[in-house]
Design brief:
Number of strands: 9
Order of helices and strands: EHEHHHEEEEHHEEHEHHHHHHHHHHHHH
Radius of gyration: 35 Å
Structural class: alpha+beta
Shape: extended
Distance between the termini: 27 Å
Length: 591
């Protein structure tokens, strides 16, 4: 459910500006809409402080070393930043000295100051590198070869007159080779010391995380302050809050002496979206937060349908009982370890895991093993004598590839029909849109029958022609009633899109089958290795571990791409949802 919002303006005296912001921050329900660009020196300084705190938090190692000495909290970030700067300087010094050494070490341990002294007495010395042959000495210069390595030769040229040979010249280093080596060792030692200090500070990473949140809160406060407008001793702040919270805002205003104006948002306003889900749908917030999507304020919350079909898509794409059991076990273990984490995240993972197990058991998916193999038959519960005949027949039916494709198309037509029916209901006040949607329902079922005929060779019913004619007539009639002549011209392309939408659901079968084939192929590769005692078994186990880890990763990626797409593109396009919303983010403290 999308929570109705009101746009409000709070007016207070200029002298109470800071107290007003503090009270609203404590109230924690105002999504601020700046009245002017929230930019000033204080905001920029707060942004820089937050960026620095985040950098420190992300850079610190995850495993702490020895505990650091007691630090004052206010100096903690500054001292860590100082260590990081020192490490950066040492890394730059290491890079510079290493680069110089790489160029001049082949010439031996020499001092460039001695060469410069010789040059002052009229003897020119140049250092060269070449990938070809070293030139011979002549009457004009003397060549001294030093070293050959990796196909390159290093040599020096001595002459009384200035010469320029066609080889790569190496400039004299600023320091001697011995000094450069000393600088390199010093830089390495400094980096090691800094790493030890940072590892020690990693023991305070939790506290540093709190400082990051404090810096974020400070930035939010400064931005809210900068976004306010002041006129003749009165300051104004604007934002959105849920309508059902206006009463508490009125009480807060009376307590603080504010003036409050509440208005209905205009149709063209970008109102933030606050989703309030029932506990059975709340798990879907995990996915919304992960991929950062939200329906627009004036769009429809399709979360129940989204969660239902996404769990089906997840199960069909992953499709393996063992993987589902693995997900279930990991979820249970982590939920027990992270008791403070939001429960709806684990509920989402439980739903996905159980859905995968159910589909995997019906489809006889067990680590890519042959469905007719002896091992699979021995653990297949649908082969047990106590299993009802109806469920046995259902399992036998679903294990046929053509039937799985048929299931994909059934899911498609049901999914898209729900979208059209729901859209028609939402627009029930506009008869022309309802008529068009009824037409599209006819077309959706027509395309379903056509796809089943083309791909699965199902017979077309005789009434299919009348279904198509009725659909086109209703779509055109609805467009004419609305005066939407453009959509009539685009109707041929839209009909093709309707066909493509149905076919698109075949990806559920294709991606799931790809995962099974990958695992099954490697099962065949490692099977002969099991004949070799111990070593062969260990090698096979190691190979299959990496294969299944890769397969799980690919399956999860497939869900992220295809499972999300079918909901946010195929379904949403027919539902009229653009996922254009911005998430309701109230002004409040993080900690």
């Amino acid at each position: 459910m999308i929570t109705p919002m009101s746009r409000i303006v709070v007016a207070a005296t200029e002298d109470s500006k800071e107290e007003t912001l503090s009270s609203l921050c404590q109230w924690g329900l105002l999504h601020i809409l700046p009245l002017q660009t929230p930019e000033n020196e204080q905001v920029l300084a707060a942004k820089a402080a937050l960026a620095n705190a985040q950098k420190i938090f992300e850079t610190l190692p995850s495993k702490p070393g020895s505990a650091p000495e007691a630090e004052e909290e206010g100096d903690l970030l500054c001292k860590i930043d100082s260590v990081m700067r020192k490490k950066k300087d040492a890394e730059e010094a290491l890079a510079a000295s290493s680069a110089e050494l790489k160029k001049v070490e082949p010439f031996g341990d020499f001092d460039p100051h001695s060469i410069r002294k010789v040059q002052k007495h009229g003897i020119h010395v140049k250092l060269y590198r070449t990938e070809g042959s070293v030139p011979r000495s002549s009457s004009e210069y003397i060549v001294k070869e030093f070293k050959k390595e990796d196909g390159e030769a290093f040599f020096a040229v001595f002459s009384e007159k200035y010469i320029d040979l066609p080889y790569t010249e190496i400039a004299l280093p600023p320091k001697s080779v011995a000094e450069l080596r000393k600088d390199k060792a010093s830089a390495l030692q400094s980096i090691e010391e800094c790493n030890k200090q940072l590892a020690a500070y990693a023991g305070k990473k939790k506290k540093i995380g709190e400082l990051v949140l404090e810096a974020s809160d400070k930035l939010a406060f400064k931005s809210a302050d900068a976004g306010m407008r002041s006129e003749i001793g009165v300051c104004f702040i604007q934002g959105y809050c849920p309508k059902d919270k206006l009463a508490s805002l009125s009480e807060l205003a009376a307590k603080n002496g504010w003036a409050v104006m509440a208005q209905e948002p205009a149709k063209d306003e970008a109102v933030p979206t606050l989703l309030k889900h029932h506990k059975f749908v709340k798990p879907l917030d995990t996915l919304y937060n992960a991929i950062n999507i939200s329906p627009g304020y004036r769009e429809v919350d399709v979360s129940p349908v989204f969660l239902l079909f996404f769990s089906i898509f997840f199960a069909m794409i992953v499709g393996d009982t063992a993987y589902g059991l693995l997900f279930l076990g990991i979820t249970f273990f982590v939920s027990k370890k992270l008791k403070s984490a939001p429960r709806y995240i684990f509920h989402f993972l439980y739903i996905m895991s159980i859905s995968t197990i159910v589909w995997g058991v019906f489809g006889a998916g067990y680590l890519g093993l042959d469905k007719e193999g002896g091992f699979v038959k021995s653990i297949d519960i649908f082969g047990m004598f106590w299993m009802p005949e109806a469920l046995k027949n259902a399992a036998i039916w679903i294990r046929d590839d053509n039937n799985v494709k048929y299931v994909c198309f059934i899911i498609a037509v049901v999914h898209l029909t729900i979208a059209h029916v729901w859209n028609a209901w939402e627009n029930r006040g506009e008869k022309s849109k309802v008529i068009s949607k009824i037409g599209w329902i006819c077309i959706t079922w027509l395309m379903f029958l056509l796809v089943c005929n083309l791909i699965l060779e199902h017979n077309l019913p005789e009434s299919v022609l009348y279904l198509g004619i009725a659909g086109v007539v209703l779509i055109v009639l609805g467009s004419v009633l609305r005066g939407d002549w453009f959509s009539i011209g685009m109707l041929p392309l839209n009909l093709i899109n309707g066909l493509v939408d149905i076919i698109s659901y075949i990806r559920l079968f294709a991606v799931g089958m790809a995962g099974f084939c990958l695992a099954n192929a490697f099962n065949g590769v490692v099977a002969p290795m099991l004949d070799i005692p111990i070593i062969g078994a260990l090698g096979a186990a190691l190979i299959m571990f990496f294969v299944h880890a890769l397969n799980i990763a690919l399956a999860v990626m497939g869900v992220a791409v295809h499972g999300v797409r079918l909901n946010t593109l195929e379904f949403s396009n027919n539902m009229g949802i653009e996922w254009s919303g911005s998430v309701y983010s109230p002004f409040k403290k993080s900690i």
